[in-house]
């Protein structure tokens, strides 16, 4: 079937800096904003921009992600002319099996793209929080008669060394490109969103593959921008790369800032609500006489009997009497027993916190095993961990998934087997 | 359960729910925030493994049709599984409205014969309960019954129900529909299982008569054949036939008489949010002993109330003992007490709704509205600084020109 544009969504990244949150799931599948997963933002952008066909490139632990994408119906990408296809790595005539990088993943699925004979290919990544109508980008791309267009966003100079940094001329044509520069010459960072004229994308991918080039930011854009018409489209909205524990926590807190960084209503974010293992829908949340809730997002299916302040609570969470939760993110089905105190924590799914246990107090010493992942005071508790009653767990701690904690953990401790 | 077909009675028109049923059938009235009343019987059927369901609907079915949609929300899609809405249709002989519950089934014989089920389960759509129908079906088969009527034990002096008297073998020996004084504590749940061949013959005979109700005409008649049994259901069962009972049933949720987390009720959540999903609730104010749904924004006070998705309670506003439907906007410093407020209403600043004049009965709806509840219809727009007394009903889209509406009023 002929389509004008096909979207390729890169969802294979390991997300190792998100530590145990990304241990059992791909980064795009990590819950975000109480009821969503990170990929919902990109999927909704695609759906809301009327792009009809999406290939989702998966590689690392894709099961949660595949279950979540399902048949594409939650995003209305389902029907005779609309579809989502999961594109995992595969073996073929050549035994080049794993995706070696972002552009290699697209290169190995050129057949999928060619099926639709599109003029344009939209390449996006599944791990960013933003709201964008890609139609304005596509319009710009066509007006510029560009071979490729890269979405750019202004970032603070001090952060520029994390990104691909572009220089543009007065016509927005890209004149320089440096990947993660030590001394950035501009503050225009790549958002990992590209539009290509299909024939030029195919050609560039073929040339890159011969030279062992596998990455859009490192091997495709820098080469193309020297010889071809590559433009920069500057995006002015809210955009966050949530690739670190701190950035992930901060972006969640931006939902509560009252400065409407993320406006879930106007962004029209769609998600897949189906509940694993349960047959019913979740009823609305019950707040008891003792509930005290301040500046928090609370999903359905919770029972709130304690205090919740500046926090994001996912579906099915129970907060018992006199428990105190502040500045925290709590995933689905976790139970916080009475008098527990939780401050600045990220608590994964189905965790049990015992009565009168304290999490996130004490001195702010960085995690000893992952000092670059955890140093701002955030403690992370892995999926299905159970922490016994009357314990003290400090700041920057990691409680490994599935562990049973029966002892105090000082700040900076990792509890459980490290892998 | 491929030898049982379910028929759900969802057609009846009711005046007693006043403006809540002005644009919709009783079966599709909102309850417990996110559900519609029919969700309970449909979820029961789904959990009991019944594969085909026909819904008999006649009165204003649009909301119901949209809500049922493809049936996928109750898992009724697939080659073997389906929900069908059976609306009245005209034949060679002209218009044939359903003349009663029994007539509605009789007019759909061709639908029933499509499946050739050995037994038919007939259930009312307007009761709130969680029941596995399997033990009742087994009971019906064990007794080799022609008909099994489900009863629940309620001690009441109300004459609203049908009452049964049984013998030792649980055979039904007497049945009285709406008697002046109850002869027993066995109240009919309007839930029946019939042997198909038997009941179709009975319905054929009844068709020539003037009244066509299961409770009034069919059950008393079939008792004589001595193969009608009574099955007793002993769990929570509630109904919403009047404004007061609808209100009371809702409040049972926050009195913890119902645990919806265990009931596993399914509903259609997409209906009013086609283009996106409802966001989580955002809470900044005080919420106490209340149920609050998705996308509510609470900046004021909410006590002992049930809020549907998308309700906004602005700062300084107080909502107590109330049931508020989808997307109602309550402006700063408004006070609502014991109010049922239908969808998309707007309540102006500093207005006071309900909570005074509880003893003044409704002038126009004396029988239906006397327990101190104020009902605001769909799309009501209440201007700033308006006072509205108890036992008052504001009909949908009524224009309010008087800012002091006395208790017991009706505004159309």
CATH names the topology of the largest domain in chain B as Spore Coat Polysaccharide Biosynthesis Protein SpsA, Chain A
Query: How would you characterize the largest beta sheet of chain B?
Result: 7 strands, mixed
Instruction: Give the overall shape of chain B.
Output: globular
CATH topology of the largest domain in chain A: Spore Coat Polysaccharide Biosynthesis Protein SpsA, Chain A
Spatial sequence of strands, sheet with the most strands of chain B: 5-4-1-6-11-8-12
Q: Number of helix segments of chain A?
A: 9
Strand content of chain B: 25-35%
- What ranges of chain A have pLDDT less than 50 throughout 5 or more consecutive residues? none
Helicity range of chain B = 10-25%
State the secondary-structure class of chain B: alpha/beta
Total strands of chain A: 33
Number of domains of chain A: 2
Overview of the structural elements:
- The complex is a heterodimer of chains A (419) and B (412).
- Chain A is α/β, with parallel strands linked by helices.
- Chain A is 18% helix and 27% strand.
- In chain A, β9 and β10 form a beta hairpin.
- The longest helix of chain A is centred in the middle third of the chain and has 13 residues, at 198-210.
- In chain A, 55% of the residues are buried.
- Chain B is α/β, with parallel strands linked by helices and 412 residues long.
- The chains are: A alpha/beta (419), B alpha/beta (412).
